[in-house]
Amino acid sequence: MNSFLTVVKKRMVKSNGTSKHSDTLSEYDRYTAKKVSFIVLCSVLVMLTAMIALTQGSYGLSLKEVFLALIGRGTRVTHTVVWNIRMVRILSAIFAGIGLAVSGMIMQNILRNPLASPSTLGVSHAASFGAAFAIVAFGSGRISSHGGSAVTFTIPYMIALCAFGFSMISTGVTILLTRFKGASPETLVLAGVAMGSLFTAGVTSLRYFAQDEVQLSAIIFWTFGDLGRTGWTTAAIIGVGAVAASVYFFMNRWKYNAMNGGENVARTLGINTERIRITGLIVASMITALVVSFVGIIGFVGLVVPHMARKVIGNDARFLIPASCFVGALLLLVSDTVARTLISPIVLPVGILTSFLGAPMFIYLILKGRHNW
Amino acid sequence: MSLISIKDMSFSYGKIDALRSVSLSFHKGDLVGIIGANGSGKSTLIKCLCGLLDVHNGHVALDGRNLSSIPKRELATLMGYVPQIQERTTPSTVFDTVLMGRIPHLTWSPTKNDLEIVARAMDTMEISEYSLRDIHELSGGQRQRVFIARAMAQEPKVLCLDEPTGNLDIKHQLGLMRAVKWITREKGVLALMTVHDLNIASQYCDSLVLLKDGLVYKQGKPEVVLSKNNIKKAFDINVAIHKHGELMHIVPVEDRDMELLES
Q: Touching check for A269 and chain B: CB below 8 Å?
């Protein structure tokens, strides 16, 4: 017991010295300041990229012309190109990027699964099946597959509703597997793959039974993501949804942090883990369904972006949520701009590009394992 | 007055009874070791007390209040939990991990006071130098200290540790016991821990609870609970006990060596 008392005394002396505290604290301050500057940097990059993206396209514009058009001093032509054509597309890219990235990040966090994302859990495919189902079931006479505002006012809500409904099925399977089977990350993804191919088969059969070419092309539209067909209304809906979801997630950031410590720790920190997991998955699926129902499947953004952000600023949800949003917006905006200009005048659907980028990254994540994701 | 009092508590997993009419009371500032064979209900007892399992039968009072009536978030400011180091976690720095302990106290973001408490907890657990290292880069002993620091950052009245010395080498086991002992003495915290090593339990714990098949078989001072006879009954092994002043040494003995020892 004597040695014990000397240890106690040593500790007492140590905890009286406050200099060590302030070292630790200022070091931590610098560490968090770095994370904040990364987020600020990303948000600035999003704005700069948006400006550059506004100049790109079949009708070439200079940065100056874009700027003048933005503040309302452009010519009629530049005004139309900037505001009516490109701006909608760029905002859709930003909002869809935010929505997909943040829902992927939340899925990975609450399932403690680096392989989770809207596309790997089958949520995207379920949503696209729902969209196709709505088109076939409720008619598509008023859907045209090209041009400014693609769909009339009533149909998109029906499509979004069906997309959401079916995405909830795959979310439900995920919740059940986690809850009752304690499924491992790999099992969840395998179940996701199974559901993905099930819903893909569903879409294929709907295509087979499609009434006419308009229906057929409308269905195909949802299977690969394209930002070219959003209008102001749909962009606004995606925007409101993505921002609302991000705000909701940000409000719960400490709960997600607690869940980083493991199930039991989170619960003894006063977190109702079950509720957080289920509401988080539902909100994430909702926003995925919203994005998919208006722009189609844009794969891998939700998987890859959170890992990119995590690599730079770590797992702390306080910073990871905003960082994922901005990196997601940036990635999708850059991808879409490249897709628009790569083999101009042909405009590639951005979903094709993100899949080409994302698939190798997915394999890399599997190879790297789960040690330091 | 006792800090925790348990009256007639039972718990079962489906049809399997894990705890049967347990009645115990624990006092502020004590280090209590919970011992017993595998499956005797040690972990279940800890989990019932820190709110991970809901007690359906019997009555548990914390500081005079019914445990099940305390909201979980408030409970988190009264009770700190130290998990086994094997529990799955995602990468996180030492500071961020200890900061988790402030979550039940937070409203929007950590105040200067919260950060101070975190830094102090890290200091007392001697992990300040690893502040920004990932906890997965640390050794098992260091990681266990991080988890204790997190529980201390909760500023609880009770600390529950579930097999904290599992997977640690002997030096780190002793270091951990010393640290927990220090917390009970300096902060007046009641610490409840499940322990496997009877020698370590006898050396550091103020009192022991010996469980057998979900029942409290014996409780009290280590030198009383850890008798040859009790150990034989609870663990079904023969031991020899050597005493050196305050210290006890419990040595397992094979049946065939028993006669040798007695002669």
A: yes
The average confidence (pLDDT) of chain A is: 82
Residue range of the domain that includes A164: 38-368
Distance of CA A219 to the CA centre of its chain: 22
pLDDT at B99 over 90: yes
Please report, as a single letter, which amino acid is at residue B234. A
Asked if B129 and B86 touch (Cβ cutoff 8 Å), the reply is: no
CA distances from A189 to A172, A194, A299, B195 (A): 14, 9, 14, 38
DSSP collapsed to 3 states, A197-244:
HHHHHHHHHHHHCCCCHHHHHHHHHHHCCCHHHCCHHHHHHHHHHHHH
Q: Is residue A373, in this structure, part of any structural domain at all?
A: no
Q: What is the pLDDT of residue A240?
A: 95
For residues A127 and B244, give the distance between their C-alpha atoms in angstroms, rounded to a whole number: 72
User: A235 at the B interface (CB within 8 A)?
Assistant: no
A311 close contact with B: CB closer than 8 A:
no
- Contact (CB, 8 A) for B46 and B238: no
Contact A52, A61 (CB under 8 A): no
Q: Would you say how long chain A is, in residues?
A: 373
Per-residue confidence (pLDDT) for residue A104, from 0 to 100: 94
Contacts of A1 in chain B (CB under 8 A): 246
Token pair of B235, please? 């663990």
pTM, entire model: 0.85
Across residues A178-203, what is the average pLDDT? 80
Residue A2 covered by a domain: no
Least confident segment among A85-94, A309-318, B160-169 = B160-169
Contact A195, A122 (CB under 8 A): yes
Give residue limits of the domains in chain B: 4-262
pLDDT computed for residue A183 by the predictor = 64
Candidates 3.40.50.300, 1.10.10.10, 3.20.140.10, 3.40.190.10; correct CATH number of B4-262?
3.40.50.300
Residue with more model confidence, B68 or A147 = B68
List strand residue ranges (DSSP E) for chain B, in order.
4-13, 16-26, 31-36, 57-62, 65-66, 79-82, 158-161, 190-194, 207-212, 215-220, 238-244, 247-253
Cis bond upstream, residue A349 (ω within 30) = no
Compute how many other C-beta atoms are within 10 angstroms of the C-beta atom of residue B213: 15
Does A325 fall in a domain?
Answer: yes
pLDDT band at A58 (very low <50, low <70, confident <90, very high): confident
Q: Nearest-CA residue of chain A relative to B178?
A: A4
Domain count, chain A: 1
Q: Which residues in A18-37 are b (16+ Cβ under 10 Å) and which e?
A: eebbeebbeebeebeeebee
Q: Is residue A62 part of a domain?
A: yes
What's the CATH number where A124 sits? Answer: 1.10.3470.10
At residue A206, what is the residue type? L
| Residues A149 and A232 sit within 8 Å (Cβ to Cβ) | yes
Q: Find which of A22-26, A141-145, B6-10 is predicted with most confidence, using mean pLDDT.
A: B6-10
Q: Do B92 and A314 touch (CB under 8 A)?
A: yes
